[in-house]
Each structure stands twice: as C-alpha cells, then as structure tokens.
Amino acid sequence: MRRGAAAPLAAAALGAAAFGLHVRRNMGARIAVLRRAASTSPHASDGAFANREPGLPRPDVTVRQVATMVLRRREQGSPPGPVPLTTDPVLSGRAALAATWFGHTSVLLEIDGRRVLTDPVWSTRTSPVPGFGPRRLHPPPVALHALGEVDVVLVSHDHYDHLDRPAVVALARGTGATFVVPLGVGAHLRSWGIAAARIVERDWDGVATVAGLTFTCLEARHFSGRGFRRNTTQWAAWKVAGPVHAVYVAGDTGASAVHARTGAEHGPFDLTLVPVGAYAELWPDIHTTPEEAVAAHLALRGGVLLPVHWATFALGFHRWAEPAERTLRAAAAHGVRVALPRPGQRLRIPDGATEHADRGSGSPWWREIAPVTDDPVLGGAAASV
C-alpha cells in the first residue's frame, strides 16, 4: 500500500469505529446486564418479559406486501402542511392538574404542584442510527432546556420513540429530576452515565413515592427492546397520584382486559393519557385504535381523555389526522370528555371541567391543514372540552 493512501484509510476506519460506538451506545445496556434485571421478575422467563394475554392473530400478508406498506407509510401518514404548534406555552406552572402535550407521548404533567415529564423524545429520528428511522413530522414546540425544573421524568418502556438517549441525558444534566422507569430500563440510563441514585425502577404492581407523588407501575400490553432481541426490559403503564389528583399514563398499550382491572383497583383517574395512533392490522394487540382507546378510558374510570401517540411520527399505515377524527367520533358516541390540544399547548384541568390556556383550543386544529369532507359529530362531550 502506498504511504499516501494509508492516512485516509486509517481515518475512515476510525470514523467507522466511532460511528459504530455511537450506535451501540444509543442502544443502551448490553443483553447480559438486562438479563440479570429480568431474572428478578416473576413476569420474565429466560431473560425475556411477556404479556399475560396471548397475542391476537395477524393477517396473512407477504413480506413484499409488508415492505411496500412500510415504504409508503411516511407519505401516507404525513400532514399535508406544517403542523400548527404552540411555541410559547406556560412552562413555569405548578397547577393542581394541567398537561402540556409536546407531541407523541411527551407530556409535561402538573399534578398537585409537582411536575412530571413523560417519555421525553426531542430527537429528529427514533432510531439508534443517525440519519435513519422514522423522522419527526413537526419540530419540538419548545427547546428541551426551556422546560425549566422537572421533578420526575417518567418512562413507559425502552422503544426509541419513548426513550430518547439525548433527551434523558440532557434532562439529567439540566434538571434535578428523578427518573422513574420500569424494571430493566434503569440499566440503559446507567449505561448513559445517569447516577443510580437518581433512578427508581419498579416491576408491575410496584409502588414508589417520589417528589411527593405516588407512582404505581401497572401492567400494559405491549413489548420492548432496543436491539434485535425483544422484551429485554419491562413495559408499563403508570398511575401518578398526588394528595388530590390521579393521572393514568398508558405509554404504549393494546386493547386489554387489564384496563378494567386497573380501573377497578386503582381508579378513578382525573386524566388519562392513552395512545390513539400507530395502530395497524399487522399488530392488533400492541397499539389501541381510537375506539379502543376510548373504551380503555371508560374502563379505567377516567375523567378527561388526552389522546397521545399521534401527529409526530408516521409509525402506522393510517392518514395523519385519522386518529383525531376517529377519537372525536368515539368520544361523542360514549359521552367522553376529550382534550385534543395542539403540540405545545397547555391545558388546565380543574375538577369537573377543562379550561384552555389558549383561546380556540376547543376547535379541531388539525383541520387547518387536513380538512375533512364528512365532519364527525362535534359539540358537547366530544368538542375538546
């Protein structure tokens, strides 16, 4: 090899090694570490967690059909114009009950004066590999550092659209927050340099008191994993209860009998955060449809429903605004009070009613860019109370 060619090859090799190390770090803890955590849980076997309910049958489709659907889903699921955002929300509040939705399942909750940030995802893509993976459909409404002090960062599971390494590392550096996570997820955080003393892990039915709030780890129907192996950490919903108010945070879940059990044992809830997007016939038991989300809210004995897991990433095969429209229809049919704020909009939720921090938030804002020809039944309970 000529001496002049050695330097570029060495630089390329070093660059590839650095890139590989970066990807590996994004993936989190190694399997051996995760298996040790799983070995302590009655809900895991041979290093893998499992749902209690059996999986539902999948449609008979070919690999080619699935590949075509995946290739087309961003085009099909993208908004036809820029998503309207609220870029100057009130971020210093400590209300009795309020919620600021930043998109997907990232929500800043104010519960009896405490501040809880759920599943913070601020990255452009949900992937360990830079430049690859589902890309955001709208920018974050506010910068992460603009959130101010956060008491608790609450994580539902370790998928990349719920556990974003740059976001949690920035929050660990910029706030005094405690990280409350399902069993095994703490290993990812520790691998990223977050002190063990700031991490609280719980398995299903486990309870922790943090910052004056009680966190109950609840069963959900989903899966986990940041590498090629699935179910290496626990996935969970959470009950977050203060002295007066209680909120249900679903994270990701499919339709399940567990919602009725949770409602009977832990309800009622003043507010529920339930996913309404990224549903598909290919995975009928891991993401609720809008109709299933409304049914879950009712089973949970919820007061106000805040639909999440839509508008920010094209992860299913439905049109961008379809989850919102179908949620309104289902809510109207069942008398459910639903809040559908713009990304970045703060909603105060006093007892028995919902106030809007911004005027006009009761209207279906997504129709500014995605109008419909057959309006769903609006008004009353369904008109974004």
Topology:
Layout: H1 3-27, H2 31-38, E1 44-45, E2 48-49, H3 63-77, E3 97-103, E4 106-111, E5 114-118, E6 152-154, H4 165-174, E7 178-182, H5 185-191, E8 199-202, E9 207-210, E10 213-218, E11 237-241, E12 246-249, H6 258-266, E13 269-275, H7 290-299, E14 302-308, H8 322-334, E15 337-338, E16 345-348, E17 355-356
Helix pairs in contact: 6-7, 7-8
In short:
The chain has about 375 residues and is α/β, with parallel strands linked by helices. The chain contains 8 helices and 17 strands. It is globular, with a radius of gyration of 21 Å.
| Total DSSP helices | 8
Give the strand order of the largest sheet, numbering strands 1, 2, ... along the chain: 8-7-6-5-4-3-16-17
CATH fold description? Metallo-beta-lactamase, Chain A
CATH superfamily: Ribonuclease Z/Hydroxyacylglutathione hydrolase-like
Low-confidence runs (pLDDT<50, min 5 residues)?
A: 352-361, 375-385
Beta-strand segment tally: 17
From the alpha carbons, calculate the radius of gyration and give it in angstroms.
21 Å
Write down the secondary-structure element order.
HHEEHEEEEHEHEEEEEHEHEHEEE
